[in-house]
Specification:
Helices cover 33% and strands 15% of the residues. The chain has 372 residues and is α/β, with parallel strands linked by helices. Bound molecules: pyridoxal-5'-phosphate (PLP).
Length: 372
């Protein structure tokens, strides 16, 4: 007998994007948003600049790295990077799930880069990173949101590489240690680890990435929302809060609120700890059950944000389980990504509370036995 749990999670929000808002989130916190004001007014620009500076501080970016707010979420930021930078030399692409595969496809079929080497792996695994050629540009995803696999650290990236490392870090930043000296370009979006609003992307550039932009002009046309230079000079004002086109000042205010929360609880180390503890809550649950396991079997590469589980159920039973937990209002949006192996995915980023996950696991146990 598996009795129905009595307690429900205070917040049943386990979606992997948009992710849970920060604990204690309240729209009141957005009261100072400069709504109806130009983003180029002094107040508008100041708020955007604040978002840039606070992000740099919390992430511990090196002083000579640039950070800009750009259009179209993480996809926009990452495409912008690829379209501006790639083609100068051969490209190695590392991918191990749907989003990374999407970048590989774009590099080959849209950008039509000729000399591309693919390093791929099935869901749940990482390819052999020792085979990657860092004389080439290297495109990869730090955390595979759809497979629950992350690269373990930056040790596979040489400090003296000749190519650039271009990293989609959207479900990693603010929850995992990113060794910035090994990264030339990183991108992310606000709705992921800090539970911000979806709209804008963030692009981070190392001095070597800036040098590439200024010294290499790809032959392909670049739409205005991708353009980062005028003549042969980087448009540095983008990285000081003068965005390419109109941003949402409301989304920016919401992001500032998330950054303030992150700062108050202890910054990056506290965010990482919260996320790792969330993963631990699920690991303790899985360790004592035979009917559920991690898609990423190896703990060294197991994501602490997008945690993917395989459950011993038929596809229709799995659907019933997901529906049941949603109807009971104890776990929302936990079905695995559409292209990933059938299973469950619980977001364990810093804005999720460990107690809520622990309670959700009790409900998962109950629901499993209900549908089995
Ligand atoms: C690794 C990764 N890359 C890219 C994306 C697309 O992000 P966005 O919707 O912010 O463009 C996602 C979204 O979940 C993701 O997880």
């Amino acid at each position: 007998m598996h009795p129905k749990p009595k307690l429900k999670p205070a917040r049943a929000h386990f979606s992997s994007g948009p992710c849970a808002k920060r604990p204690g989130y309240n729209l009141e916190a957005l009261q100072n948003a400069p709504l109806g004001r130009s983003h180029r007014s002094s107040i508008g620009k100041k708020r955007l600049q604040e978002a840039i500076e606070k992000t740099k501080k919390i992430l511990g970016l090196p002083a000579d790295y640039l950070l800009g707010i750009v259009p179209a979420s993480d996809t926009g930021a990452f495409e912008m990077a690829m379209w501006n930078l790639l083609g100068e030399r051969p490209v190695d692409v590392i991918y191990f799930e749907a989003f990374g595969k999407g970048w590989a496809d774009d590099i080959q079929k849209q950008l039509k880069i000729n000399n591309v080497t693919i390093h791929d792996a099935d869901y749940g695994f990482l390819p052999d990173l020792r085979k990657v050629n860092f004389d080439h540009d290297v495109v990869f995803t730090w955390n595979g949101t759809t497979s629950g696999v992350k690269v373990p650290n930056g040790d596979f990236i040489p400090g003296d590489r000749k190519g650039l490392t271009i990293c989609d870090a959207t479900s990693a930043v603010f929850a995992m240690e990113v060794p910035w000296a090994k990264i030339d370009v990183a991108t992310f979006s606000w709705q992921k680890v800090l539970g911000g609003e979806a709209a804008h992307g963030v692009i981070i550039l190392s001095p070597r990435a800036v040098e590439r932009i200024e010294n290499y002009s790809p032959s392909r046309p670049l739409p205005k929302i991708f353009r980062l230079k005028e003549g042969n000079k980087l448009m540095s004002e983008i990285f000081e809060g003068s965005t390419i086109n109109t941003p949402s000042m409301l989304c920016n205010e919401d992001y500032l609120d998330a950054l303030d929360w992150a700062d108050k609880i202890g910054g990056l180390p506290a965010l990482i700890k919260r996320s790792e503890n969330n993963l631990k809550a699920i690991e303790e649950f899985v360790a004592r059950r035979s009917w559920v396991q991690f898609l990423a079997g190896d703990p060294a590469i197991r994501s602490n944000t997008s945690v993917c589980l395989i459950v011993d159920l038929q596809p229709d039973q799995l659907k019933q389980l997901v529906k049941l937990l949603e109807t009971e209002e104890v776990a929302y949006d936990i079905a695995s990504y559409r292209d990933a192996p059938g299973g469950l995915r619980f977001w364990c980023g810093a804005t999720v509370e460990k107690e809520d996950l622990e309670i959700a696991m009790q409900w998962l146990e109950w629901a499993y036995h209900e549908v089995k």
